[in-house]
Amino acid sequence: MLQERVENLLEEAFHENNSLFLIALNISDQNHISVIIDGDNGVTVSDCVAVSRKVEGELDEDEIEFSLEVASAGATEPLKFPRQYKKNIGRTLAVQTNSNKFEGKLQQVSEDGITIEWQAREPKPVGKGKVTVDKEATIAFQDILEAKVVITF
């Protein structure tokens, strides 16, 4: 019952700020509620506070004892939803599929998958040496085992 109540409150919070969306909701046996959110334009501390207040303000601590934690998805967390990919167009992703690993710039996101581009050094068709070639891969969401944004400084 607590799970359903929290899910409904989160839906209301996301309706109030439709740029935010749920990544994960976990409720432990001791009623520790952990909420991970993301947003189309990132997540601010005030976004986390607003979601926390929405949930906490509607749950009655006299009725049930709980603790609540609302956080944003970390920069090193894998992307899980197409909506997360869309906000990362133009950034470099490391993508693992069943058969390959790719690292390239996210160019496009469709309903079915993503397109990334990168450059690779390959042997010249004639003669010795190597030449730089542009590569592209279209990867279906169902084939992605893990995709992370590559953080560069």
TrEMBL record:
GO BP term, example: translation
Localisation per UniProt entry: Cytoplasm
Main location: cytoplasm
GO annotation, cellular component aspect: cytosol
Keywords carried by this UniProt record: Cytoplasm, Ribosome biogenesis
Domain annotation Ribosome maturation factor RimP N-terminal: ranges: 20-75
Domain Ribosome maturation factor RimP C-terminal: start-end pairs: 79-153
Family annotation (InterPro entries): Ribosome_maturation_RimP (IPR003728), RimP_C (IPR028998), RimP_C_sf (IPR036847), RimP_N (IPR028989), RimP_N_sf (IPR035956)
Top-level lineage group: Bacteria
Its biological purpose: Required for maturation of 30S ribosomal subunits.
Listed PANTHER family: RIBOSOME MATURATION FACTOR RIMP (PTHR33867)
Family recorded in the similarity comment: Belongs to the RimP family.
NCBIfam families: PRK02001.1
Protein name as catalogued: Ribosome maturation factor RimP
Biological source species: Gillisia mitskevichiae
Gene name per UniProt: rimP
